[in-house]
Amino acid sequence: MYKQKFEDYLILECNYSKLTVKAYLSDINDFENFYIVNIDNQLNWIEVMYPDIRNWIVSLVENGISNRSINRKTASLKSFYLFLQKIEVVKKNPLSKHKTLRVEKKVQLPFSEKEMNNVFEEFSEETENYGNLRDRLIIEVFYTTGIRRAELIDLKVSSVDLSNKIIKVLGKRNKERLIPLLEHTIPLFRKYINVYSSGYKVDNSSFLFVTNKGVKLYETFVYRLINSYFAKVSVKIKKSPHILRHSFATHLLKNGADLNAVKDLLGHSSLGATQVYIHNEISQLTKVYKNAHPRNKK
Question: What is the pLDDT of residue 123?
Answer without folding.
Answer: 85
